[in-house]
Write a structure and sequence with these properties.
Elements: E1 8-10, H1 23-26, E2 45-47, E3 54-59, E4 65-68, H2 69-74, E5 78-85, H3 91-97, E6 111-120, H4 121-128, E7 138-143, E8 154-159, H5 160-164, E9 171-176, E10 179-180, E11 190-192, E12 207-211, H6 218-221, H7 234-238, E13 253-258, E14 264-265, E15 273-280, E16 288-294, E17 302-303, E18 305-306, E19 316-322, E20 331-338, E21 364-367, E22 370-371, H8 377-382
Bound molecules: the ligand Nc1nc2c(c(=O)[nH]1)N[C@H]1C(S)=C(S)[C@@H](COP(=O)(O)O)O[C@H]1N2 and molybdenum atom.
Length: about 375
């Protein structure tokens, strides 16, 4: 074993690294910077020696494969610009607008938008040759590098039909924004599945298995599912998990990132108020085509400007200038629409709730803004 680099770990199973950037950093650039992106982990972060790492392709295939990273680098490379979002993003809003939920208190920052490069999963599957009916089978992604909080490893799966469809651009990613993945992002190799919840984007990927059933991992079977509203305790949830579908695609969404709730602002009638945020298309129905803002409780909506032009799998950054009156009761709401015609329809506080706080997509909202006294027109006139 002389000369072999052993994998070492950051963090522990009990206290994994979970963090999100502040809102102004989050939407500071269209392409998220590696060091400014959220981290979501269910266990410690492995630091892997790529020259030792193998990606195994097995299960119902005619040619099982064990591929070194340097081999993956020699295959045709594909790049996709895609958002990556945790299904628990916006959980904070759900628990404050509705009622308590169980999970990390994500605000709006458990999402990033990046350019991912690697080998299309369909390319690898054409080498391995699945032997079962794609319309009823699954492809499971696993990382056995470390135990996780709820299982002995981390795993997730998607339908095999999606994996085989090159249009879905399901990617075995080696790079983010033209650079090798960092250990936090899954070095040396991770899944990127555009339009699909981050939970399936398995980091430190070491096994891809073609099988009849979904992944048996706890994060596919007993989490990342939308529990019905009558389930209000963990014990009750236990009886439901096996009956519910796993989350696959993420819903149409948008949030307001700036100004922050309760911020002191100039009178918008004198200095137009810049409201900004991001929007995400639903599943494969992107790009975002429209973001609209309302200042009157959803009676009227006006279009925001998308900057720059979003693409099929990317997020959209948007901006809106408001120059009307502002009172203590003024609440701004945003809603997004995508190319597939999906639109947000639920007002915050109108009953979108599930115990795990996943898939929240009520209108974005900001309230409680205060006009700075010195910028009130009457006062300025007396100076
Ligand atoms: N091996 C492994 N892969 C994983 C996870 C994990 O805990 N372990 N977390 C998943 C979840 S829930 C999300 S949202 C994304 C987060 O990716 P990021 O940490 O690069 O933001 O990775 C996914 N892949
Ligand atoms: Mo997640």
């Amino acid at each position: 074993m002389l000369g072999r680099t052993l994998t070492w770990f950051d963090g522990t199973v009990e206290e994994p690294l979970n963090r999100e950037p502040p809102p102004e950093v989050l939407i500071g650039r269209f392409i998220s910077k590696e060091g400014e992106a959220y981290d979501r982990n269910h266990g410690p972060i492995p630091h892997i020696d790529a020259s030792e790492h193998l990606l195994h392709i097995d299960g119902s295939v005619s040619t099982p494969l064990s591929l070194p990273i340097h081999y993956l680098r020699t295959l045709p490379q594909h790049t996709v610009l895609a958002a990556l979002q945790c299904a628990g993003n916006r959980r904070h809003t759900m628990r404050t607008k509705e009622k308590e939920v169980w999970g990390i208190d994500w605000h709006n920052g458990a999402v990033m938008n990046a350019s991912w490069t690697g080998v299309l999963l369909s390319t690898i599957l054409s080498l391995a040759c699945p032997t079962i009916d794609p319309s009823t089978s699954h492809v499971a992604f696993s990382c056995y590098q470390t135990a996780t909080q709820d299982d002995g490893y981390y795993g997730g799966s998607i339908p095999l039909s999606r994996a085989l469809d090159p249009k879905m651009e399901v990617l075995i990613a080696l790079k983010m924004n033209d650079r090798d993945l960092t250990p936090e992002r899954g070095y040396p190799v991770r899944m990127i599945i555009p339009g699909v919840a981050g939970a399936r984007a398995v980091k430190w990927l070491d096994r891809i298995t073609i099988q009849k059933q979904e992944s048996s991992n706890a994060y596919q079977q007993k989490d990342y599912k939308i529990l019905p509203p009558e389930v209000v305790t963990k014990d009750q949830a236990a009886a439901y998990w096996h009956k519910l579908p796993s989350i696959l695609e993420t819903p149409i969404n948008s949030v307001i990132c700036s100004p922050s709730p309760g911020a002191e602002i100039d009178d918008p009638r004198i200095t137009p108020l810049k409201i900004s945020g991001y929007a995400l298309p639903q599943g494969c129905d992107g790009p975002i085509t429209k973001v609209e803002l309302s200042h009157d409780d959803g009676v009227t909506w006006e279009p925001a400007t998308l900057l720059p032009e979003p693409t099929k799998w990317s997020w959209a950054l948007w901006e809106f200038k408001y120059s009307g009156p502002l009172t203590e009761d003024t609440t701004f709401m945003c809603k997004a629409t995508d190319k597939g015609g999906n639109t947000q329809t639920i007002k915050p506080g109108e009953g979108q709730w599930n115990l795990r706080g996943v898939g929240y997509n009520a209108f974005g909202e900001v309230a409680g803004l205060k006009v700075k006294p010195r910028s009130l027109p009457g006062i300025e006139a007396r100076l």
